[in-house]
């Protein structure tokens, strides 16, 4: 029997195993959709995954970066390790019809279907594990979404977390050191093709900015004050003035909200706070956009003579997929759904911590259909769990079979083409480049040491 015929037979066995577990997998996707939990708090979802791993007889670790659960399926011989991921967390959208009435959490991005697809891939690969030359790793990962950041910052300051998002924290802790490449299948919004392969995403930096001025009576002696609110509004205007200086191909996005603008209109505001997210398609573009925002922030402080303190944190690195894995997924997607169902990927202005994982290993991140509404909105719901979870389970199982079948030659060629792996220390240094706490004194027109924590 030829290698292609053997792979085809293994894929058929894996698909049959997944189809045999169809109703249970669809029920998992639906159950998790109705029990949403935000990042680093996904205890119900983690327990669900752990139960499946126990049933499959897979040894696993739990409590990784608080709630992560990781299992390993060894093949017939040693070889590369390919991870299939499922993201555990939900967003905060209290207006969503399936939102948790207490926490406001809601699955408006389809992560629950990812978890079901990861479990389905485990079911399928368990049926053929004795033919795999390498290991399949199944990893339920926490906190992909960038929400509840102030709470997470406190966890970082206390040492409980190292980073604000899940995969970055897992990488820093060495949880991916024994994995060679990784994949997950995300659910897209309404109108998406059955399968999109090859998409890229922006990286992003979060800036927490505090302007400190001097309070005074707004009616009788405003000249004695330093208006922190006006310094902040000038900074926002200066950021807006930068927009036509950003190149279209860099896909720069800068979004700011004012979270505090004063305590009463009768007093000159002595404190104003902004939350700013800076996104861009490449590291170079992200550096340039962050520098432009920092200049705008300092300009607002300089104009009013206020002090501005900025805490910058790299949220996500830009995300680019491995070309060989993309071609593998396209071929398997065409075989599974038909060639016309597979669309070429595009660049998306959103961000994902798969970009961080892509800095240290080859990654694959296709999008599947099955949802209505717009992602991250109150009208988003997965309504076709088969398209969102079952088909991706088959797709990823097939990709792993191609990678680890017949001596794992395909996996080894992907790794050889990628070249030397970025070490955990190199990854940490890259993130540290964007993380900073700075203070600019507008009255003196100079940088100075930060005055205490934000």
Task: Give a structural overview.
The protein is an alpha/beta fold. Helix content is 38%, strand content 23%. The strands form five sheets. Strands 10, 11, 12, 13, 15, 20 and 21 form a seven-stranded mixed β-sheet that branches. Strands 1-2-6-3-7-16 form a six-stranded mixed β-sheet, sandwiched between helices. A hairpin with a 4-residue loop joins β20 and β21. α1 runs antiparallel to α11, α4 packs across α11 and α9 crosses α11. The longest helix is centred in the middle third of the chain and has 22 residues. The protein is elongated and about 90 Å long. The protein starts with a helix and ends in a 6-residue tail after the last strand. The model has no long low-confidence stretch (mean pLDDT 95).
For this entry, give a set of tags.
single chain; 454 residues; 13 helices
Question: Which descriptor suits the 3D outline?
Answer: elongated
Mean pLDDT: 95
Helical segment count: 13
How many beta-strand segments? 21
Percent range for β-strand residues: 15-25%
User: How far do the termini sit from each other?
Assistant: 65 Å
Structural class: alpha/beta
Helical content band: 25-40%
Main beta sheet: strand number and arrangement? 7 strands, mixed
Low-confidence stretches: none
Rg from Cα: 24 Å
């Amino acid at each position: 029997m030829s290698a292609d015929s053997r792979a085809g037979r293994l894929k058929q066995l894996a698909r049959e195993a997944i189809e045999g577990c169809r109703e249970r997998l669809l029920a998992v996707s639906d159950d998790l959709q109705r029990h949403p939990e935000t990042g680093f708090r996904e205890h119900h979802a983690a327990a669900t995954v752990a139960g499946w791993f126990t049933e499959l007889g897979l040894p696993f670790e739990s409590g990784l970066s608080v709630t992560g659960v990781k299992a390993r399926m060894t093949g017939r011989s040693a070889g590369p390790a390919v991870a299939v991921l499922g993201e555990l967390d939900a967003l905060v959208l209290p207006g969503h019809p399936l939102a948790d009435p207490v926490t406001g959490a809601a699955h408006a991005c389809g992560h629950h279907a990812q978890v079901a697809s990861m479990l389905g891939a485990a079911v399928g690969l368990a049926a053929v594990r004795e033919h795999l030359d390498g290991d399949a790793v199944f990893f339920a990962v926490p906190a992909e979404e960038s929400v509840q950041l102030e709470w997470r910052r406190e966890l970082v300051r206390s040492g409980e977390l190292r980073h604000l998002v899940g995969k970055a924290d897992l990488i820093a802790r060495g949880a991916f050191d024994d994995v060679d490449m990784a994949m997950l299948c995300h659910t897209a919004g309404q109108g998406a093709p059955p399968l999109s392969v090859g998409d890229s995403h922006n990286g992003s930096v979060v800036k927490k900015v505090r302007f400190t001025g001097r309070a005074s009576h707004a009616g009788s002696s405003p000249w004695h004050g330093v208006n922190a609110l006006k310094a902040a509004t000038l900074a926002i205007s200066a950021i807006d003035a930068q927009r036509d200086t950003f190149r279209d191909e860099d896909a720069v996005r800068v979004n700011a909200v004012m979270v505090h603008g004063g305590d009463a209109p009768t007093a000159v505001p002595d404190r104003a706070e902004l939350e700013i997210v800076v996104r861009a398609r490449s590291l170079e573009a992200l550096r340039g956009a962050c520098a432009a925002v920092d200049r705008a922030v300092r300009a607002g402080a300089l104009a009013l003579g206020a002090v501005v303190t900025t805490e910058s944190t790299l949220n996500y690195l830009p995300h680019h997929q491995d070309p060989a894995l993309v071609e593998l997924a396209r071929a398997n997607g065409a075989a599974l759904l038909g060639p016309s169902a597979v669309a070429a990927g595009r660049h998306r202005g959103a961000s994902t911590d798969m970009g961080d994982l892509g800095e240290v290993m080859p990654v694959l991140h296709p999008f599947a259909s099955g949802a209505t509404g717009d992602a991250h909105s109150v009208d988003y719901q997965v309504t076709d769990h088969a398209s969102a979870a079952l088909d991706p389970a088959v797709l990823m199982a097939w990709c792993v079979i191609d990678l680890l079948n017949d001596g794992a030659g395909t996996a080894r060629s992907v790794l050889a083409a990628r070249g030397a792996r970025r070490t955990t220390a190199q990854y940490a240094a890259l993130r540290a480049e964007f993380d900073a706490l700075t203070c600019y004194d507008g009255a003196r027109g100079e940088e100075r040491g930060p005055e205490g924590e934000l």
